[in-house]
């Protein structure tokens, strides 16, 4: 089955199924138009400062929206959405109910304990290709269905987690658990304090050494006991299944959990292979779009970005990892985080890891400040991942057609290179911001390719420094950097002002440089930038 067939035949994510999987712990229906069978196609975050463009079938996260008046106004502006999420308590009156019936958009209430970032991540994970199946399509079609099936077998709420205790899927009935499990589901990650507690009690060692389910009693009165089973293929641990239980599992339920772990292992292997294939496909398609040419339009269509007003972001982790395998894993996680971030902003964004650079093509609404908006998107992403990933992002020029995407990619590659050359981390820069520095790097490339060397006064200074061990070139650089302020320049090189004046007189005599000539100053400054300040 090719890519088009998979996209055509993928399981449909209905609003009702999403609510069923999340449960009332996270989302609840505040006002419904009736049936919740409408298809959900993506997640869109409302920003009052941006133009509101909500694609058909999207779930709109109404950040900061409160009161019946604001809810009605937003429903009128987004009549093609499937649902709108508002933080609890939701002010539902007759006007809101009438607007919901008129537009067909369900209003959902989000628990106060959840952050918007968490609910966006939850919804995105549920909407990922292949992650949802309609009820009745088979118990083992995906991890969420598997979690629900194990929940029914054990009569206990279940999570399926990877080796890093990140939640891959969870069953219903999480509202019957404890605060630790609720926090885990909301954050899609076991909180650090519980991980330390589990590790201190040797739980993970027991779990990964055992081929049978283990019973866990934590030293915490607020936490219900757990039953856990490692998910493995041969000697490789893929993850684990965790059930909230009030007493040890019976032998029958232990066998059910053991059998379920084998099925989960197969599903994880399938998903890992499918994810790798999908990533390679997306990387190939996006590489084709970024390169331009005759195949770019078809590739853009398959990615869903065949539109105008596009901007390319190039993101790269700073530093070189000592372990190449760990570096590749870090880059892929970084790219996945970027994908989640840009998709929450625009459902038609496309991203892929190409080499060591994570590229994202971001559609932008007209507004006249597209590059500045793209830079803000990049800065907000860096602020979010900063504690985990030190990275830089270059932002290219606006592309008004697919033919200009390659130009935008070249521009953000240059912006990224400027940031890398400056030794910075955690910074985003638009191409126009670093345009001149980019031009200097290009000129330096040409000079290096043609094996060119400094000439004129600068070359004579470098030769004199090399022969006599002096630092006249550094003296000249400090003088130019200080705009001719001798006292400031002398302080920069840590010498007395009179000593600096003497060195300045000597360098003029040796080089023949006329410091009163602006063209001569510009020439030597450019040579210093292009060839570097050699000592």
From TrEMBL:
InterPro entries: CdaR-like_regulators (IPR051448), PucR_C-HTH_dom (IPR025736), PucR_C-HTH_sf (IPR042070)
Superkingdom, natural source: Bacteria
Every PucR C-terminal helix-turn-helix domain range: 472-530
One Pfam assignment: HTH_30
Protein name: Helix-turn-helix domain-containing protein
């Amino acid at each position: 089955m090719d890519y088009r067939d998979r996209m055509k035949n993928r399981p449909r994510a209905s609003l009702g199924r999403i609510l069923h999987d999340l449960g009332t712990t996270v989302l609840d229906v505040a006002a419904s138009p009736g049936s919740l069978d409408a298809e959900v196609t993506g997640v869109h975050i409302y920003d009052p400062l941006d133009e509101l463009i909500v694609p058909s079938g999207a779930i709109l996260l109404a950040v900061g929206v409160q009161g019946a008046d604001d809810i009605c106004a937003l429903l009128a502006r987004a009549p093609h959405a499937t649902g709108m999420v508002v933080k609890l308590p939701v002010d539902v009156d007759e006007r809101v109910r009438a607007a919901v019936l008129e537009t067909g958009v369900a209003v959902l209430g989000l628990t106060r304990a959840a952050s918007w970032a968490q609910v966006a991540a939850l919804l995105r994970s549920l909407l990922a290709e292949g992650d949802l199946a309609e009820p009745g399509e088979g118990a083992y079609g995906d991890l969420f269905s598997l979690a629900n099936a194990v929940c029914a077998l054990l009569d206990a709420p279940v999570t399926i987690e990877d080796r890093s205790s990140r939640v891959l899927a969870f069953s219903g009935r999480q509202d019957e658990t404890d605060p630790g499990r609720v926090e885990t589901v909301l954050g899609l990650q076991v909180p650090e304090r519980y991980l330390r507690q589990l590790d201190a009690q040797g739980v993970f060692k027991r779990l990964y050494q055992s081929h049978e389910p283990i019973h866990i009693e934590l030293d915490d009165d607020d936490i219900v006991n757990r039953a856990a089973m490692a998910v493995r293929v041969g000697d490789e641990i893929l993850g684990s299944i965790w059930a909230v239980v009030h007493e040890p599992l019976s032998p029958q339920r232990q066998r059910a959990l053991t059998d379920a772990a084998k099925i989960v292992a197969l599903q994880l292997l399938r998903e890992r292979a499918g994810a790798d294939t999908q990533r390679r496909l997306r990387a190939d398609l996006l590489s084709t779009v970024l390169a331009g040419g005759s195949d770019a339009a078809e590739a853009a269509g398959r990615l869903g970005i065949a539109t105008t007003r596009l901007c390319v972001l190039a993101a790269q982790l700073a530093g070189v990892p000592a372990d190449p395998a760990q570096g590749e894993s870090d880059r892929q996680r970084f790219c996945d985080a970027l994908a989640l971030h840009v998709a929450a902003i625009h459902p038609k964004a496309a991203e892929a890891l190409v080499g060591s650079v994570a590229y994202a093509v971001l559609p932008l609404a007209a507004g006249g400040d597209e590059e500045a908006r793209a830079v803000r998107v990049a800065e907000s992403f860096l602020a979010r991942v900063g504690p985990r990933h030190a990275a830089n992002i270059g932002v290219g020029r606006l592309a008004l057609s697919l033919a200009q995407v390659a130009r935008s990619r070249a521009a953000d590659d240059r912006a990224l290179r400027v940031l890398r050359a400056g030794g910075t981390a955690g910074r985003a820069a638009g191409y126009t911001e670093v345009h001149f520095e980019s031009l200097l790097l290009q000129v330096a490339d040409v000079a290096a390719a043609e094996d060119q060397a400094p000439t004129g006064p600068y070359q004579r200074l470098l030769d004199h420094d090399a022969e006599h061990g002096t630092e006249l070139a550094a003296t000249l650089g400090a003088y130019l950097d200080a705009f001719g302020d001798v006292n400031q320049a002398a302080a920069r090189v840590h010498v007395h002002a009179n000593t600096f004046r003497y060195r300045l007189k000597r360098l003029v005599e040796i080089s023949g440089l006329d410091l009163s000539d602006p063209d001569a100053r510009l020439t030597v400054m450019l040579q210093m930038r292009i060839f570097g300040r050699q000592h």
